[in-house]
Prior knowledge:
Layout: E1 3-7, H1 11-21, E2 27-31, H2 34-43, E3 48-51, H3 60-68, E4 78-82, H4 87-95, E5 100-103, H5 111-120
Parallel strand pairs: 1-2, 1-3, 3-4, 4-5
Helix pairs in contact: 2-3
Amino acid sequence: MATILMIEDDGKFVRLIEKIMQPLGYRIIHSSTALGGLQLTESQPIDLVLLDMDLPDLDGKVVATMLRSRASVAKVPIIAVTAQSDTIARRLALAFGCNGFIPKPIDTRAFPSQVETYLKG
């Protein structure tokens, strides 16, 4: 069972992802802050990070950079999931270490296969 870390401050969105992914066998752990999410990477094995780029405590680009510098998650796929859907936001997310970009609102039917693609590399 793959463990997905969600660093996301929107509780409704977290519940939506849990509702979609948990029945498929994914374990979802969550932090509503960047700092809390960074702490979780040190205490739990993580297979994929879903990263909101608009967090209350740190900018998502900074968080992606920090995640890439941590040995525990340096090679873990990071997917930016954000309402910032323009081309510049996408390019910035990738430039700062994200492996992919999924704009909000998500397509709930396509989301599991998108996640699986990143997990398989």
